[in-house]
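Quick look at the format.
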Amino acid sequence: MVPISHGKPIRISPRVQRITAGNSGPMTGPGTNTYLVGEREIAVVDPGPAEPAHIQGILDAAGDRLRWILVTHTHPDHSPAAQALREATGARLMGNTLQPDDGFQDMGFVTEHAFTHDERLATDEFTLRAIHTPGHVDNHFCYLVEEDGLLLTGDHIMQGSTVVIIPPHGRMGAYIRSLRLLLDYPLKALGPGHGTVIEDPVAEINYLVQHRLQREAKVVKVLSAVQRGNLEALTRQVYDDVDPGLHPIARYSLLAHLIKLAEEGRAAAEDEDHWVWRS
């Protein structure tokens, strides 16, 4: 396992280096990972927050070789540095934007190229395959460095933690389907948006799917027992194994589970806060 080092390029595969921003915290873990793919011509994946020190670290590592800037999604810890890098290098901005703003988007990111699912960015040194993975947020893409079998996962998969799903642009059903979709690709390792490299991608993906389904089963158990509840009370019961200080965040994922159950006809919303069991 290659440890995290803030501000310094660390090689994690034959074609990829990682630079971690200094924005560590409860939602970002040790910080946002920026990946530099290639040597003669470089693609940056997830430029990260608009922190001067982080931007300078990327420029020091890539210099005038930076050609492409890709984002996995437009959350404010992943894409804001893109504009400064473009202004410094003229590199092409690539990624998918999201409308309307849900209050969590970097609305300053303006793409020059929006990816379609399974589209490739091919160079003489590497091939990046864009894989549409909605769930954490609808405009989320992972990027597979095909020659290395390394999947750069953004916030679809984090090392050491599960990701929060925030409706309406975050959807639990889509998230689980997107996880299963990744099993169709020849993955050797995962480069997460936060944390260290995950060396057993199949085991990690299967664990995450099972974890979400187990949490869903707990939602079903609690809601079917009480028949009706508000989000605050349901969060306390469904996430009774989680630090209560994290319950305000867990509440988003609970809502995503409830919306999935409603789509399946097993639950229904009486209003924005109250849910009832229907099955």
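Next, a different chain entirely:
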Amino acid sequence: MSDSSIAAGMAAWENHQWSQAYGDLHALLDTEDCPPEQLEALAESAWWSGKGDDSIRARERVFAVYSASGSDVDAARIATALAEDYANRLQSSMARGWLNRANRLLDGLPSTVELGYLRRLEAVFTAGAEGGMPRALELAAEVERIGRENGHRSVEVLGLHDRGRFLVDMGQVDEGMALMEESMVSAVAGELNPRDTGRVYCNMIETCAAMGDYSRAAEWNDHTMRWCDSIGSDSAFPGICRIRRSEMMRLRGAWVDAEAEASRAAAELTDFGPFMAHAFGEIGMIRLNLGDYEGAEDAFRRAHALGSGYMPGMALLKLAEGD
């Protein structure tokens, strides 16, 4: 692999030109003894370009390099990213394994930004467990504190944001939404790194939709899609955000446009199975509204095959069919 290609790829990565960086750096996957910083750049660029498999391959390689060299903090950062990657693929045992590895690597070390991201992922996992919400709230407050003490705005705002959405889930809607809206202002103002900006945007839309607050969801969705357009159409985040945009269209009765948007989301998420499943679930709901019962059933079954439950969509379909 030529030095000029690597230099061009690293420059593209630094400027968040993910597709170009991925194309220039992709050959590193088959190159021995390359610097870990280059592999990290490849992993991130692959993720943003919707190449989840290549991102995981690169991260596993760079973890081995950091681990062998005794760079525990760097290795923990990669282990945390891999835990999230595998969780998003519904491979919970692998995710827990990487999370535990990150914890062991950071045990006894100072309270770093890497610890903040680790605690943040632990908070998300804990919130999904039965009775775990109070502990998740404590972890989110710790993340906010770690970010503030380290002068890392993204980590601080992530903690604030998660505290807000956990409070909403616990029924404290007004208090929780106030924190989430504050974190959204930071995202809109460009205070956060790209990955955390996407997290804040997507979670806000999801929370609003889950509450049935479609007016607020639509308002923030407009900001979200403008941000998605600014990072390029080949990224995974636009696909994820497009699912919610499609839902907003469906609820407004723009069914044809909604199906086109959801289909585009599915195409952008081919390496992200669970999110692709949500896209097909939305396609099923749209086709149900259009009276395309055969097409709706096909979409619901594809969503189920990718790891998503197909209720209540399938039940509504059978009801519409008189079954």
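The first helix runs from residue 3 to 14.

See the schema section for token definitions.
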